[in-house]
Amino acid sequence: MPEPQQLSQRTPESSDRQVVVVTGGSRGIGAHLVRAFADAGHAVELCARDGDRARSLAAELVAAGHDVVGATLDVTNAAAVDAYVRDVVERRGRIDVLVNNAGLIEPPSTLWDADVETWERVLRVNVLGPFLVSRAVAPHLLAAGGGRVINLNSGAGTRSAPDQSAYHAGKTALARITGGLHLAGREHGLRAFDLAPGVVVTDMTTAMPQDEGRTEWTDPADVTTLALALASGELDAWSGRLVRAGVDTVASLQARAAEGLGEHERTIGLLPYGPDDPLG
Hints:
It contains 8 helices and 7 strands; from the N terminus they run βαβαβαβαβαβααβα. Helix content is about 40%, strand content about 15%. A 7-stranded parallel beta sheet has the order 3-2-1-4-5-6-7, with helices on both faces. Residues about 1-15 have low confidence and may be disordered. InterPro entries: NAD(P)-bd_dom_sf, SDR_fam.
């Protein structure tokens, strides 16, 4: 792991305005998140493979009075990720929140009919990408006394499927990245969350055969409200766990946390066959 650059410690006076990095922020859920963080007064760094689109969105928001920068980034390129994070830190002085949003899904196919290159690409973007960006950002969060990582996950990560094995495997793996960040970083102020957005109308979801004819969609505001609350620290009790937009609310999550959360609640693990299961 690279040595963290020494950054200024966060203070209560400066914590309301955060530096937020959003990957895959040029369209879809990512663009909704960028707009929400910008509207809330945060400094936003959005990146995407489509750099022109990222810069166009940033320019639109800057014209509206927001502090937003757009850039090109392939999250699967380790050297590019490291250089991008260094650039953000040099310009901003710190990073407070990372939102790993960039992701792909493959066309439905049984595993034995799956295209190898497509399968690998989905895993690279959905797993290697969040790993590389988190690996580059985490030292800066730790050096500054803590921070938060929000991984855009899915209910697909909690179960198997007959026709999209790459996406489901990738989201399960992403939860392990979240859990690893939480366990290794919690004593140092680092918090990590899985945020499942439900099914939001985007270019990706409207092109998916399984969503053809769907009439119930998740309101993007439900996603952004939870993301802002996670970033603010209001829901730190849920670090290492999954929350779901459109079902959970800030109030319901706070109330449930106040009652006490079991060690494995809202995490992915082995379900034993009974109290005498040696793997239980």
